[in-house]
Amino acid sequence: MPKRILILLACFFMMGVTQSYGQQQRYEIGLSAGYTRNTLTTDNGSRSFTRNYPLNGFQVAIPMQYHVNDWFGVQLDLAYIQKNYALRRTGFFEGVENEITNSFIQAPLMAHFSFGGEDLRGFLNLGGFAGYWASSRIRGANLDPFTPGSGWEDDEQLFHYTQISGLYRSNEGVEFDKQRDRRFEAGLLGGVGMEYRVSPHYKVFAEARYQYSLTDLQKNYMINQIPRYNNTFGVQLGVLYGFGGR
Amino acid sequence: MALAAANSYLSILVSYLEKMNIYILNIRSVVLIIPTLFLMLNACRKDMPELERPTDYPGGNFEEVFETFWNGMNNNYVFWDIDTTDWDQVYRRYQPIFATMNINDTADIRRSYTYFRTMTNGLVDSHYRLRFRSTILQDSATISPASRRMQQREDFRNPISPNYFLNTLPLRDLDSGASRALVNEPNGSQYFAVSGTISEGIVYLYFNVFDLKRLYESSAANTASYKEVFDNFFTRTLGEEQPRGIIIDVRNNGGGNLADLDFLLGRMISSPLHFGYTKSKLSNNRLDYTPWAPAHVNPATDAKQITSPIVLLADRYSASMSEITALAIQAMPNGHFVGERTWGAMGPLTGNATYNAGQFVTAFMSEVYTSSLQIKALDDRNYEGIGISPDVMVTVNTESLATGRDAQLEAAIQLINRQ
């Protein structure tokens, strides 16, 4: 299946190159930054009062484009991107939560299709990404069996476990586990956006992009392992400097 | 030149692909490709295993009985990062066997007991035990890997008789004025406690189970003498003058309630005492752990800083809360531990809903008793399955005890006298 996808992408690339060669090529490099919201695809199965939630983050990238004609190009980004999520206890265990901040260094490679007028144009990016899980941080509050909870009087009802047991709040880096953590991530992405040429050399753009990871965040270390996949929606603003060609 | 060469190469490649009847698509086709691509993507991700609560499986056949137990352990056992049992290998070995067994066959039910005992034999959790619902297995012993390991020790001995602590030691070793209490509860539980002084100035306390706070605060008539034992202990310990030393005897004490750590030691410290770390599970996978959280003894409101030596007496049958108490006392600047290496069951327990790990039941098993948290000591070592080593090693000699000599108690007194 991935082989067919690669062939299709190769076809797009070659079509653009072969149909337009002869015109002058244009290169662009720039800087972009924006917001991300990551959702984890996983399953907490039978775990009681335990839910995953999406979390916000940010991304910064150096986009590099190679335009082979006025509607097709290839884009490679060098990006820092956060793919965060939260694991929270609900109901009786409300208050117990962990927010995980995951930082990735990744390189999305995309076919860049643009359309529209001379200055204001829309574009579509389609491609894949490969990345390295650089760091992880966990901030949260977990039950501490050795700290008494807030308590309750004899005539009061019990609403939360935190009345029984206290919470330990922490904010610390996660040490990667060689047996558990898969630090290479790859997947596919698609983005749409608008770009506006503000001068012969500069243009600004805004893009909404969705990244769909195809690699589990964990290595296969156990039978009946529950996989975890990142799904990252991002919105970014950027500027590109063009040189070469028109 | 390079671009010309690349273009030439690509042109050749394109014509080759065209010859292979692979169609080059125009930009309009992209609109159709996108949803197609995303449909294909789902096939690239792994399926989620179907996991229900262990209690939800009916257990109508042995294949399901095994799967339920194996998955229950897979998801709720808290020691997978330090346990040497290859749980995947257990699955590969026993799943095919259980798939051929019949739950209506008495011989197969008896075989299952042997299989469950073998597959859990090496588990490091020293609280661990299995009990079964089947009437056919009612005459079979509870499966307890740690008990089995204890029985296989070359220097195996039986526990010291409870009668020794309730009757022999108080009358023989304690000064006059010692207090004793015995509480029998309707559910069959028996609690007893002893407090007094030794050698004029050393305060001594014994209790057989950690359920001190509940019994002390109980208004039941049968707990009045129990409360008196502790009132005497606290009066002697927390009075105006520091005692010459304190001996807390948890030999043969299998543990109990965590709240007793603050109830007992929290009265002897004026600031929180950091003695170790705990962690539990975040979710189902074996290595989904919470961060380590510091474990403290919290000072009571009427606490007094004890500066005189506090000596814990413990032996190989001191387990769970007794061992946690040993960790805490060893973390005190004036704390000492005299006796034998403890049982090695350090992890606190409760149902698996609280900490996403711990005890569960199935249709076939009335109890899978296992820890909900791990504890590690201040030296970053986890002593589960190992036990806490004493500062002064003195082994129990039951023959010597019978003839009136308690070497461990003597060592504790000597240690205090030397301070």
What this model shows, in words?
By secondary structure, chain A is mainly beta. Chain A has a single domain, classed as Porin, CATH 2.40.160. Chain A has one helix at residues 2-20; strands at 26-41, 50-67, 72-82, 85-89, 97-116, 120-148, 165-173, 184-197, 202-213, 229-243. In chain A, strands 1, 2, 3, 4, 5, 6, 7, 8, 9 and 10 form a 10-stranded antiparallel β-sheet that branches. In chain A, a hairpin with a 4-residue loop joins strand 2 and strand 3. Chain B is of the alpha/beta class. Among the domains of chain B are: 54-146, no CATH class; 162-268 and 304-346 and 383-418, 2-enoyl-CoA Hydratase, Chain A, domain 1 (Alpha-Beta Complex). Chain B has helices at 2-19, 29-44, 62-76, 87-99, 106-120, 145-151, 162-173, 212-217, 224-238, 260-264, 321-331, 352-355, 398-402, 407-418; strands at residues 129-132, 179-184, 190-198, 202-207, 245-249, 273-279, 293-297, 310-314, 335-339, 365-369, 374-377, 392-393. The longest helix of chain B is centred in the first third of the chain and has 18 residues, at 2-19. The chains are: A mainly beta (246), B alpha/beta (419). The interface between A and B is large, with 64 and 64 residues.
What structural class do you assign from the helix and strand content of chain A?
mainly beta
Count of runs of 4 or more consecutive helical residues of chain A: 1
What's the assembly state of these chains?
A: heterodimer
Q: Order of strands across the biggest sheet of chain B? A: 2-3-4-5-8-9-12
Distance between the termini of chain A: 38 Å
Number of separate strands of chain A: 10
Number of helices of chain B: 14
The biggest sheet of chain A, with number of strands, parallel, antiparallel or mixed sense and barrel status, is: 10 strands, antiparallel
Q: What is the general shape of chain B?
A: globular
What is the tally of beta strands of chain B? 12
Rg of chain A, alpha carbons: 23 Å
Give the overall pLDDT of chain A as a whole number.
91
- Assign the CATH topology of chain A: Porin
Name the shape of chain A in a single word. elongated
| Largest interface, C-beta closer than 8 angstroms, per-chain residues | A-B, 64 and 64 residues
CATH architecture of chain A: Beta Barrel
How does CATH name the architecture of the domain at 162-268 and 304-346 and 383-418 in chain B?
Alpha-Beta Complex
Helix content of chain B: 25-40%
